[in-house]
Amino acid sequence: TIWKGLAGIKGPDRLVATTVLGNLVVEIDPRTGAITNQWQRGINATPYGIGVADGEVYIGQFLNGTVEVYNRQGILQRTIDTDLASIESLAALGGDDVQGLVPTDYRYRDIYSGLDSKFYVLDAAGTTVGRYDSTTLAVDEFFDLARPVNAIAVAADGSIWGAGEDGILYHFSATGAVIEQRTIGSVSLIDIDLNVSGQILILSLIHIS
Q1: Distances (CA, A) of 117 to 70, 76, 134, 154
Q2: By the 8 A CB rule, do 118 and 131 touch?
Q3: Longest Cα pair distance anywhere in the chain, in angstroms?
Q4: Staple 58 to which of 9, 28, 51, 159, CB 3.0 to 4.6 Å?
């Protein structure tokens, strides 16, 4: 019986799943339903969700907040610690063979699908932005903002609006330079969004404006 996860993998194209009994990971031909490959995980933690990225199989572990990463031969490649507290145990994982993942040392505090059809991430420090192709997830570039912010929104021209910890709304160029800034209040701005009409929605610790 398939248990808590099903994902797709390419080359050859298969479905990948975990099983209830035998602690197995199986590859299934989606056309015939036949199992074409299987291997035993050898880890006692209960699998909760399965995903595939760049040809590697990611299996979430319930109650310990980690993700085990395997190759298609069933060899453990590494373990990812999600830093979840014990009361926030990992309970789901998904994804179908995302290609072009770029390993970095950054941890991200915000993500945004820009109106310029690019995908953006903001690092935990609020100063470094990564720009990605929204279709392939191939990285375009990483660059620094001139001021740290809590969250970003990106306009159709690639310019970036930032919600400042200091209560300031920042407008950055596509390379991170400050174009303009406006003090909204004395409280921290914690999130920001931008619609196609150019209207800006800001969330502060006190209210939405």
Answers
A1: 32, 36, 6, 9
A2: yes
A3: 62
A4: 51
**β-bridge partners, 51:** 58
- SS3 of 30-86: the string is CCCCCEEEEEECCCCCCEEEEEEECCEEEEEECCCCEEEEECCCCCEEEEEECCCCH
pLDDT of residue 160: 97
pLDDT per position as a tens digit, 120-178 = 999 989 999 999 888 777 889 999 999 999 999 999 999 999 999 889 999 999 999 99
Contact 39, 23 (CB under 8 A): no
The residue behind tokens 């990106």 is: 154
Can you list the pairs that 115-120 forms with residues at least 24 positions away whose Cβ atoms lie under 8 Å?
Answer: 115/154, 115/155, 115/156, 115/194, 115/196, 116/154, 116/155, 116/156, 116/157, 116/158, 118/154, 118/158, 120/152, 120/154, 120/160
The pair of three-digit structure tokens given for residue 32, joined into one six-digit string: 């015939």
Segment 168-197 shows an average pLDDT of 90
33-44 residue pLDDT tens: 899 999 887 666
Decide: 52 and 67 in contact? Cβ < 8 Å.
Answer: no
pLDDT in tens, 54-98: 888 888 876 667 788 899 998 999 888 776 655 555 656 666 665
